[in-house]
Amino acid sequence: MEDIAETSLRITAGLLLLSPFVQCPLTYFFLKQHMGAAGPETPDVEALRLEIAELKQKYEAVLEENKELKAKLAQLEPHTDEKRPE
User: Fold this and answer.
1) Residue 5 confidence (pLDDT) above 80
2) Are 51 and 29 in contact (CB under 8 A)?
3) CA-based angle 58:60:65, to the nearest 5?
4) Residue 13 φ then ψ, to 5°
5) How far apart are CA 17 and CA 59, in angstroms?
6) Could you list the residue ranges forming a coiled coil in this record (predicted)?
7) How far apart are CA 16 and CA 19, in angstroms?
8) What is the Cα 49 distance to its own chain's centre?
9) Contact at 8 Å (CB) between 16 and 31?
10) Per residue in 9-56, pLDDT tens?
11) In the chain, what is the straight-line distance between the N-terminal and C-terminal CA atoms, in Å?
12) Which helix (H) or strand (E) holds 9?
């Protein structure tokens, strides 16, 4: 049996879902997910999760490449601390 706080939360969430001020579908999805009303994830959601994982991997690879290129550039650039001949 649900306690009073959980019941109150469910009622509040239900009212939020019905509110005309809730314009964002993500709000609806978030509330459904966290209220336990969401069913199994659709293939679209799974595809988006996979795409996010791939993009994170690509991002990490680009960060690593950037780090390596900065190190190479630092070796090739003349040091700015040295005095230049006039």
Assistant:
1) no
2) no
3) 95
4) -65, -40
5) 36
6) 45-72
7) 5
8) 10
9) yes
10) 666 656 555 555 455 666 666 766 666 655 666 888 888 989 999 999
11) 86
12) helix 4-18
Over residues 45-86, the pLDDT tens digits come to: 888 989 999 999 999 999 999 999 999 999 988 776 555 555
Q: Token pair for residue 78?
A: 């003349």
CA gap 25, 38 in Å, rounded:
14
DSSP string, 60-83: HHHHHHHHHHHHHHHHHSPPTTSP
For residue 20, what are its two tokens?
Answer: 């005309």
Region of residue 36 (phi > 0: left; psi between -120 and 50: alpha; otherwise: beta): left
